[in-house]
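Help wanted!
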Amino acid sequence: MTRVRRIAIALACALAAATAVAEPYRGPLFDTHLHYNDEAQIEHPMADVLGRMHQSGVRAIVANSRPNDGTRLLAAATAQTAAAGVTVVPFIRLYRNRADYSSWFKDETIVTMVLDELARGTASGPYRGLGEFHLYDSANANGPVAAKLMRLAQEKNLAVLAHVDDAAIDLLMAHAPKARLIWAHTGIGGAPGARVRELMLRYPTLMGELSYRPGLTDGSGHLSADWKALFAEFPTRFMLGSDTWINARWQQYESLMQEARFWLGDLPPATAQRIAWRNAGELFGVPEPK
Ligand SMILES: [Zn+2]
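Answered by r_m:
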């Protein structure tokens, strides 16, 4: 082979590598941040939401709702969820109504409600976690009910889905250093990658859920360099979520899942599969669907 030809082949290969379009991830998805709130049940009955999951290749969900009736509905619809191929992992929401969002951490009746729900369980088995809850002021992570529920979660091996800032992660973990805390949105305020890394290193049981995460993708929907680096360092610690907190999110459900499949395609297949399914599958003991 002549030198010119060798150079031409090398250039062609480099060009092909640079322009290669990653294939979207095609495997099963585990939606670890799903709400089926009372207002959603009117506009989006069971067949509608399960149809959207089925259409999107979502094969398991963390279900939580305000109040907890929506979760119980999903957990009780065993024939419908089985037909849609969806496993329901029920969580206890701390909210009976919207007013509870901003006072639950100091309201002892919330502890009673959680204990009653735990004792009651669901048609799909025992509750597996608490949340999602919000702390708009991280200092409230030191509220008596927040401390009590973190210790309860640690003792009963319940996961906790918390919509909080990075300061509150330290405060919550101080109550229960071995609790399995899922950081909703991995911080919706967009804590820098270095801070996320610091917390992941400090708390081995901390996981990050990725809905709404600022900085996760660039303008074209591909993963940012920061997040590629975080996933490479912590492939076992992140999970997907839809966060259907308002009905508009249900209307976007399929496109939200398509967006996730698109950026998952930027990762090595084993890492994509972990974030899409396996990390949550292992956390909740749900086997990968065939
Ligand atoms: Zn949420």
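OP: Thanks! One thing I noticed: The chain has 13 helices and eight strands.
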